[in-house]
Amino acid sequence: MERESEVRERVRELRIYYTNLVVYAGVSLGCVVIWLLNGAGAFWPIWPMMAFGIAASLQGVRLGQLKSLEDWFPFLSPEWEDSQVKALLKSSKEDRKTKDKLSMRSKIDEND
User: How far apart are the first and last CA of the chain?
Assistant: First the structure.
């Protein structure tokens, strides 16, 4: 029963988000029409469009509908540092093994 209430809440949040997107599109279109009817001077509708766009983007990221900053810039995630440390440690171990093999070969070649 608890799972169903969580799913219902998620669906409700998505419905609100999609409704906000429709309102955003309508307000943006209305602003552009007003701008056109008033002589199409400086493109002032960009300001409300940007404000609504930023709000919609943040809401979309929160709901998982858009990529988050960590998807675009993986170094912002907390796990990135650990994965880089592990990768560098692994590569340094492999480098040491390669150096050891090369030094052994050079010693063998010197003895021949």
Answer: 78
In the chain, where does DSSP find H-type helix?
2-37, 46-62, 69-72, 78-111
Which range marks the domain in which residue 78 is found?
A: 69-112
Count of structural domains, the chain: 2
Same domain for 26 and 76, yes or no, is no
Q: Which sign, positive or negative, has the C-alpha torsion 39, 40, 44, 45?
A: positive
What's this model's pTM, rounded to 2 decimal places? 0.56
pLDDT digits (tens, 9 = 90+) for 88-105: 888 877 767 666 665 666
- The DSSP 8-state label assigned to residue 40 in this structure reads -
The residue to which tokens 């209305």 are assigned: 30
Same structural domain, 10 and 62 = yes
